[in-house]
Design a protein that fits this description.
Number of domains: 3
Structural class: alpha/beta
Largest sheet: 5 strands, mixed
Shape: elongated
Order of helices and strands: EHEHEHEEHEEHHHEEHEEEEHHHHHHEE
Number of strands: 15
Strand order of the largest sheet: 2-1-3-4-5
Number of helices: 14
Distance between the termini: 78 Å
Length: about 525
């Protein structure tokens, strides 16, 4: 049992929560109230203050240090504005209470003093802690719903906006900040031309990030894959386990810095330099010996085939023999065969381009997607209602806590899947625009046109413009200085070039018999993006 006259040195604990949108002004007000109380009571005090951004107890370093100091007997009392400042979680409040009881330390607030050794005071402490915990859950739930609704209106609720944007505090919408937007456009233009993240980073030495730091590969990659630059906001509401319970995709929420067609073109260009997932590169380093560098794959086993220079005859370049036994070939012979196959890719792209220009052919698909989206939204409303019924059943005592948690997890998982589908279809609808699609094909055809010009092909590209077959054209040649550029452009259009060399070919003749022919046969298949 403590005595009021024994209280001489106290600890002041002040805390604000970022999650509850509490500002530094609130912290200042609390500091003023608690320090004034100590000065009035003539307490010697030490301040412990923290800005909490999450609900994890182990992250509250100042409170943990305070509890440690209390255990060491450094203080006679603990001063707070109100009990909820200690903890709004029942478990955490009991941890604090046990430390206070063990060290015979009272809690001092402007309204009263709590002696936790006293049964009535402890009951009051527990009741207020329980009410604070319930209030926190209510506030958290309302804030989560509020954030989702604000995101659906296109408001920016995700902290600091990306480079090139500022948040209008009145409308809460993003607005373009031109000095930074110029940098963003420059980066996207470089990426669209096929420059890799590393190369782009090297060209940004004169520019700085918003914090005044130099750009690095990671920041450039994140910028290039951020859909916010297309005018689209994405927000994911998560539960305590970190699982997404609702996804919001709001298109045309603000003015885009980058057109959607260019953004999609850049994603294609980025993927052309990647293999598998976004983190695993499949492009070799070193000298670019061939326009097909990093593009040749074995038709038999699927492995990538290397290209090397002959150790004795430096002017001779070869495609290595594959581990599976698929024979190698001179690079010149392979490239000569490749030009013919490229015509197939050209024709496919041109046909797709012409089809994309016909809006009526895409209308049925868009209507189908809209119907699917409408149905998914109806399902989402039903599942949300189901989730509310589960919560009400638990509140009314129909469900036990275990039954509630189990059913809640099942329903939330279903809602997560629906929201994911809604997000995907919304993006497809945005992309299924005739102008956007035609722009993508037009860009790829432009890249091929650049390849042909660098290859001195078809009278400076004239035949390409007319769309004629390249079989009748002379075999193109690429100057050594242009090999790297042609290789870069081809990677934007072509995914892989499959190669197979064999010495026996079987065919079915007109009479239905199988003919076998011996020789040296080469088969090349070009896989476009």
């Amino acid at each position: 049992m403590f005595l009021l006259k024994d209280i001489k040195k106290v600890a002041i604990y002040n805390r604000i929560s970022r999650e509850n949108n509490e500002t530094e002004d609130i912290l200042f007000n609390h500091r003023t109230i608690t320090t004034r109380l100590c000065e009035t009571k003539v307490y010697d005090y030490k301040l412990y203050e923290e800005v909490e951004s999450g609900g994890k107890f182990e992250e509250r370093t100042k409170l943990l240090q305070l509890l440690k100091d209390l255990d060491e007997g450094l203080f006679d009392g603990l001063v707070v504005v109100e009990l909820s400042r200690l903890a709004r979680n029942n478990l955490y409040s009991q941890i604090v209470a046990e430390t206070l009881v063990n060290n015979d330390v009272p809690v001092i607030t402007p309204s009263r003093i709590y002696d936790l050794d006293d049964e009535s005071d402890r009951l009051m402490y527990d009741l207020e802690s329980m009410m604070s915990s319930k209030e926190l859950r209510t506030i958290t739930r309302r804030m989560k719903v509020g954030k989702i609704e604000r995101a659906k209106r296109g408001e920016w609720i995700q902290g600091r906006p990306p480079l090139g944007y500022r948040r209008n505090n009145k409308t809460r919408l993003l607005e373009i900040y031109e000095p930074e937007a110029e940098i963003v456009r420059y980066i996207f233009n470089l990426a669209e031309k096929g420059h890799g993240v590393t190369e782009i980073t090297k060209q940004l030495t004169i520019y700085k990030t918003r914090d005044g730091n130099s750009f690095n590969a990671s920041s450039v990659y994140k910028l290039l894959t951020n859909t916010t630059y297309t005018g689209t906001i994405k927000y994911e509401a998560k539960n305590k386990r970190g699982e997404v319970i609702e996804s919001v995709v709001k298109v045309d929420s603000h003015e885009p810095i980058v057109p959607l067609s260019q953004f999609n073109s850049v994603q294609s260009a980025i993927q052309s330099r990647m293999s598998g997932n976004i983190a695993k590169r499949n492009r070799s380093k070193g000298e670019c010996l061939s326009i097909l560098k990093d593009l040749v794959y074995c038709k038999v086993c699927g492995l990538k085939m290397g290209i090397r220079r002959d150790s004795k005859r430096k002017e001779s370049i070869y495609v290595n023999k594959c581990k599976c036994g698929n024979k190698g070939i001179t690079e010149k012979k392979l490239v000569d065969e490749f030009w013919e196959e490229l015509s197939i890719v050209e024709k496919q792209l041109r046909q797709s381009f012409e089809k994309a220009l016909d809006v009526s052919k895409t209308q049925d698909t868009k209507e189908s997607l809209n119907k699917t989206l409408e149905e998914l939204n109806k399902q989402s409303d039903k599942v949300k209602a189901k989730l509310r019924r589960v919560r009400d059943a638990y509140t009314d005592g129909v469900f036990t806590k275990e039954e509630y948690i189990t059913d809640k997890m099942v329903v939330e998982k279903e809602l997560t899947q629906i929201n994911k589908s809604v997000s995907e279809i919304t993006q497809k609808l945005k992309q299924y625009d005739a102008e956007t699609i035609s722009k993508e094909y037009e860009t790829k055809l432009k890249w091929l046109s650049d390849v042909r010009e660098l290859s001195d092909m078809y009278n400076n590209g004239e035949l390409f413009v007319r769309g004629k077959d390249i079989k009748d054209a002379p075999i193109p040649t690429v100057n050594t200085k242009d090999i790297t550029e042609v290789n870069r452009l081809l990677k934007l259009v072509i995914n892989k070039v499959y190669y197979h060399r064999y010495d026996e070919e079987t065919t079915l003749n007109e009479d239905g018999y199988v003919d076998t022919e011996k020789g040296d046969f080469i088969r090349i298949t070009v896989e476009p993006k």
